[in-house]
Amino acid sequence: MALSAKFASDMISRTAFGSSYEEGRNIFQLQRELEELVMQSQRSIYIPGWRFLATKMNKRMKEIDKEVQASLKGIINKRERAIKQGEGKNNDLLGILMESNLKEIEEHGNNKNMAQFCWFGSTMVMLTRHPSWQQRARVEVLQVFGQNKPDFDGLNRLKAFFESTILAREFVKIASPQSMSQVTMILYEVLRLYPPGSFLTRNVHEETKLGKLSLPAGLETVLPIILVHHDHELWGDDAHEFKPERFSEGVSKATKGQVSFFPFGWGPRICVGQNFAMMEAKLTLSMIL
């Protein structure tokens, strides 16, 4: 898991700032510390308004937020000076945004993208425990890329639907005709069993009727992602088992519920890094296989 986290950190840092993990390691160390503090606070008894008190933990969380923002602003200011001197590069996200005269570049001090990719470690564990699926994924990757390095076009072919006569002959034992990519099915199933986040929180802005429940305005609700993903009524009696084939016809037919699969959240505030995380996972898995 530590290696997966470092890989994710390095990839995010290079994509966003063109910098190596070592250059931004202080930011990621602070983010890990913040994540641990958040987990500690979640394990304690919830007391309304407690987060506003000047406790040792709350003070440290605010300090970390300030340090992360200061570090990020330092990277941005350094790039801005380089651009003015004609030495700036525009081959990363930061350079592209700054060259486009975007005045406000804001990076929130959180660890979402890294956490979302850490579930890739669970993918490797599941493929180790289920070698038949590991072989299926390997055959598909070799069919798409051959002996070449994975590229963008190939990764797009692994994105949603993929038909292969080789796969059809090789894995005729699969219960239903396969159209969903083997790699995608595997990643979806891992995201179902081991989602990046265990729950979502949402605030009720106006009184809402939810079935027989009446939710007053101002209420904070918690959506237990992991419980929904493991619900037998939604996913069947094999909800706790690793069965990627359940996604063979897409997400909508894999479950009995309309919104039963939301590893990256749902609605207008769905994770903006979900496509990036999936691309990371497919790229890394393809290279390993």
From TrEMBL:
Keyword Transmembrane helix: yes
Cofactor: heme
GO cellular component annotations of the record: membrane
Positions bound to heme: C271
Keyword Iron attached: yes
Family: Belongs to the cytochrome P450 family.
Protein name: Cytochrome P450
The species this protein was found in: Carpinus fangiana
